[in-house]
Amino acid sequence: xxxxxxxxxGLVQPGGSLRLSCAASGFTMDYYAIAWFRQAPxxxxxxxxxxxxxxRSAYYAESVKGRFTISRDNAKNTVYLQxxxxxxxxxxxxxxxxxxxxxxxxxxYWGQGTQVTVSS
Length: 120
Description:
By secondary structure, the protein is mainly β. It is built from no helices and eleven strands. The protein has strands at residues 3-7, 10-12, 18-25, 33-39, 46-51, 58-60, 68-73, 78-83, 92-99, 109-110, 114-118. The model has no long low-confidence stretch (mean pLDDT 95).
């Protein structure tokens, strides 16, 4: 069964850090670009970051540049999102998704999401 599973979310104070993980089962991540999206209550889903399968190029939304870092460990079939200097506006459910490239309009596989809450 093909699955993506996110973990690492939680409650953190402003300025704090979290590392999200996206683990794949049932398929090999090596050939897929992996993206992180987030959706806050009452807002549309937005792309946060993406890492390509080939040269591991990384892309970031302007709102997270310099604070978030995406990386992948193909041996572990896992992609990570290191989130530093978190702000209350980063509060959302974070999802990972797999596709052929970082420039697709649709993604083949999605995870169930992990809640990130930034609050004092």
